[in-house]
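Quick one, T. Sequence first:
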Amino acid sequence: MARKAADPREETKRGVRPLRLLLRYLLAGAAALACAVAGMAGFFRAEEFLVGDRRFALPEPAAYGEECPNVHLAGIEHASRRQVAAVFSPDYGRSVYLIPLAERRRQLLALPWVKEATVRRTWPNRIDVQITERQPVAFIHYPSVRGGSGDRVALIDGEGEILPLPKAKFQLPLLTGILPEQPKNRRRAAVGQVLRMIEDLGSPLAGEISEIDAADLNNLKVSLVMEGRAFLLLLGDRNFRRRLEGFRRHFPEIRPQLEGVSTLDLRIDGRITTVEEPATPAAKQGVKHGE
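Structure tokens:
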């Protein structure tokens, strides 16, 4: 059978369709490129406006040492307002658009007492700062740095962060055996062990303790005054309330045996053991059994 000849008009149509598609894609790409260029130009014009217009500039303080009126600080009770405000001193006179908020937040978190911080721009030219302060759980007493004189006292929070003393009064226990040069995780562990002991002791028993030695996490030592005499009690790492209550309960009957004794080992449940002072040969003597 003879093959039918192709229609020239159909061939022409098939050749024109790809060309039209190509032109359509090129026009769409050109339009998108034009929109992108226009958008970038608009962005740069807007950014230039935000950077250069004085309405967006953070004003400088009225006098040296004063706070910037447009840096609003909230949540500060014990932290130094001067130190917090000084973080933003490099930004005075320039647009709030240029202020690196994440960097300023990191600088705030490095300050004593600051646990958390939020920094936010408020247009046209204000910075709002919200501070969350650390909560101290105890005082710490430690030797002064080399070359210094006397001992030092500071505060410590539950994370082991050492805090300078503010102009405020706290009713908190005093800890020894925790030093600034110790790793933070070691300080955190010591504070955690002390807080567990205080929780176990409960009120009012915990309030009778004047000092806690946390140098050995496996053997907490507490200072307690009984009938005008100060005793150092070795409580170990558990059963704190039971051991301390046993000592208090039996104190009247064992008091005659405690002449010249100031340190007692309570780590063996049901037994109170006297501990000789370090100046004499180490020895122990049981004074009470079967609590």
